[in-house]
Fold this protein.
Amino acid sequence: MAAHPVYPVLWNGDRVTLIDQTRIPNEFSVVEISRSDDMAQAIKTMIVRGAPAIGVAAAFGICLGAREIQTQDRDRFLQDLEQIADTLRATRPTAVNLFWAIDRMMKTARQTLGSVEHLRQVLVETAQAINQEDLATCQAIGDHGLAVLPQTPQKLRLLTHCNAGALATAGYGTALGVVRSAWRDGRLERLYADETRPRLQGAKLTAWECVQEGIPVTVITDSMAAHCMQRGMIDAVVVGADRIAANGDAANKIGTYSLALIAQAHQVPFYVAAPLSTIDFKIASGEEIPIEERDPSEIYQIGETIICTSGVEYYNPAFDVTPARLIAGIMTEFGVFAPAELKDALHQRSL
Ligand code: MRU
C-alpha cells in the first residue's frame, strides 16, 4: 500500500524521490535520483509522467544539475546550467509545463545575484515553490471544476481518460482533482476510467489512485465509452491537458479527441481541467502543438508478449488535439472559462 496522500516527486536534500509509475499497480516502489541525467532518463521512460509532474521533476533536475557543476564562477555556472536545462527540455515535447518550469528555474538563476552556492540554494527554494504551488493549484481546480458540473437527480457519474491525478501532478490532480472534490462533497456516484491504450495509465494509475481513496471506479476499454454514453451512464467527461493553445484547443493523451467527439454526439458535457502553466499563449491554435511519437513497441508488445504479426508498420502518437469547439469549459485555478474566453481571462495573469 502507498503512503497517503500520494506525492510523486519529493526533494530529499541531496536527491529526488520519485514514485516509479511504471510499476504501479503491481508494485509500489520509489526511485532515488541524484543526477540530472538520471532525471532526464526518468522523464523519458515515464517513471515520472503527467504534465505538471514532469515540470516539477525537471525543476528538481535543474537543482541536481546545479550541484554537479564544480565552478565558482557565476557566468560559467549559468552556461553549464543552460546545457543541463537543454537536456531536460529534450525529454518530452508535448507537455508545456516541462518548458514552463525549466524556464522559470533558469530565469531565477539568471536574476539571482550572489555566490554560486547562494544560487544553488535559491534554485532549490524555487523548485519547492513550483511543487507546493501546483498542489494548491490542483485543489483550486478541483473545487472550481466541481461547481460547474451538471446538477443531476442522482449523484454524478464522471468519465476520465488517462491519468490526470495526484501521480500526474504535485498531488491531488487536475481532472482527478475534480473527481476528488466531488467525492469529498458527496456528489460522486462513480468514476469511469478509460484504460487508455497503449500505456494504460487509466487502468494502471487512475484506478489505483481511486482504490487508495475508496472512490468507486469502473475501468472500461477506450472503445466502450460511446456505448456507456449511449446508455446514459455518463453525466460529464473531465480530462487533463498537456498543452492548451491560446484559442482553447487542448492536447491531451491519445484518444481524448475521439472521446470529445462521442461526448458531443451524446450531448455529454466535455471539460478540460488544467493549471495556467499548461496554457501556451505563444501558440495560436492546436495545429502548432508538437505531438510526441513514442516507440512502436508500446503498441505491439504487452508485457513480454508480442501481440502483432511481423511485417507491419506502426504509428504511435502519444497525444492528440481536441478542438476548442468540443470543449464545454476549461477548469483552471482561477475559475472555469469557455475556450474562447481563455485568452482574455487568463493572459494578464501569466505576464
Ligand atoms: O504520457 P503521459 O502519461 O505523461 O500523459 C499524461 C496525460 O496526457 C495527462 O492527461 C496530462 O498530462 C494531464 S496531467 C494532470
In short: DSSP finds eleven helices and 16 strands in the chain. The chain has a mean pLDDT of 96.
